[in-house]
Prior knowledge:
Layout: H1 7-15, H2 20-26, H3 34-40, H4 46-58, E1 62-65, E2 69-72, H5 74-99
Antiparallel strand pairs: 1-2
Amino acid sequence: MSKEVPAIAEIVDLLSKKWVMRIIWELREGPLTFRELQVACEGLSPTVLNNRLKLLQVNQLLGKDDVRGYVLTAMGLELLEVYKPLNHWAKRWQANRKQK
């Protein structure tokens, strides 16, 4: 008998994979092509980007439109709302570190 993984553990595991949160963040203003995402995520190899995009699609956080590129799904957009308070906090944290 296998134990069901708690939802929070499952999403934290997904989001903790390198580049996943960054890709979601970069899509906050709308669809981006593969190349646009690669430029936005400076240092991200095409292989890793391809793997992460597939992972996000399988997990229904990302969709792909042949014309517009990669786009957040309704669940992806909902997750993005969780990022906003974290982004606000991160800006304060960053400013505080620079003062010291």
